[in-house]
Design a protein that fits this description.
about 220 residues, Rossmann fold, five-stranded parallel sheet, 8 helices, about 15% strand, binds flavin mononucleotide
């Protein structure tokens, strides 16, 4: 099964130090996700923001930018998503939401996601994680109940994603493993059900405007 690991930071600046702390969090998670999934890292630096926001679904198929078309294909083909976000002002990172907003919810729908947040502070991004739950539910990739939070991620992880020498690496591995196992269980279950019943027959993709799903 395929999983996409979204790295939610474009912050190549300091302070605060170090920048792109998310790289080490993703390196740590990648090692664990790899036990259950064929994982691909999606880096928002490969999708620089444009002056005008134009989501992939606003282009005609014939002139959709190639990098957006390619990522949309990866999202559609994935069985699960790991959404890794720093906490910025108690919210998920704008780099992550900006990238995800480029794609239709139908590309993510009927598949599970795992929320992983981090910060250099003591709460590990838990406040961001709470609003990620409603965001990802709206996107259609329902978050599993286990959430991963990494407080003081700059001290917990070394630059290569390995836990620092003073950390209990086995406990961090067990902690991450619970989230990955939940994601795997749901990804498998959703995959079988998608094979049996096409979800878009009963719940068609809306094509033009959100009023297509309005109450009468
Ligand atoms: C604009 C901004 C807002 C931040 N807000 C929070 C916050 O609300 N809570 C927190 O614990 N850390 C906050 N931080 C600190 C981040 O946790 C820390 O800078 C982390 O390294 C960000 O991840 P990144 O380096 O991968 O971008 C903030 C940092 C920035 C740049």
């Amino acid at each position: 099964m395929k999983a996409l690991l979204f790295l939610g930071s474009r912050r190549q600046s300091s302070p605060p130090q170090p920048s792109r702390l998310g790289e080490r969090v993703c390196a740590f998670l990648n090692a664990h996700i790899g036990s259950r999934f064929d994982a691909t890292l999606i880096d928002p630096l490969d999708y620089p923001p444009t002056e005008v926001f134009k989501p992939a679904f606003a282009y005609a198929a014939s002139n959709k930018p190639a990098h957006l078309a390619k990522l949309e294909r990866l999202i559609i083909e994935a069985d699960a998503y790991v959404m890794v976000s720093p906490e910025y002002n108690h919210s998920m990172s704008p780099a992550l939401s900006d990238l995800l907003n480029h794609f239709p919810s139908s590309a993510f729908a009927f598949k599970p996601s795992l929320i992983a947040t981090y910060s250099s502070g003591q709460w590990g991004g838990t406040r961001a994680a709470l609003n990620m739950r409603s965001y990802l539910s709206e996107l259609g990739c329902l978050p599993v109940s286990a959430m991963l939070h990494f407080p003081h991620a700059d001290k917990v992880f070394q630059a290569d994603g390995e836990p620092a020498a003073d950390q209990d690496a086995a406990r961090w591995a067990k902690y991450a493993g619970r989230g990955v196992e939940q994601l795997h269980w749901w990804a498998e279950a959703a995959g079988w059900q998608r094979e049996l019943v096409n979800p878009f027959v009963a719940s068609p993709v809306f094509k033009r405007t959100p009023v297509e799903r309005d109450a009468p």
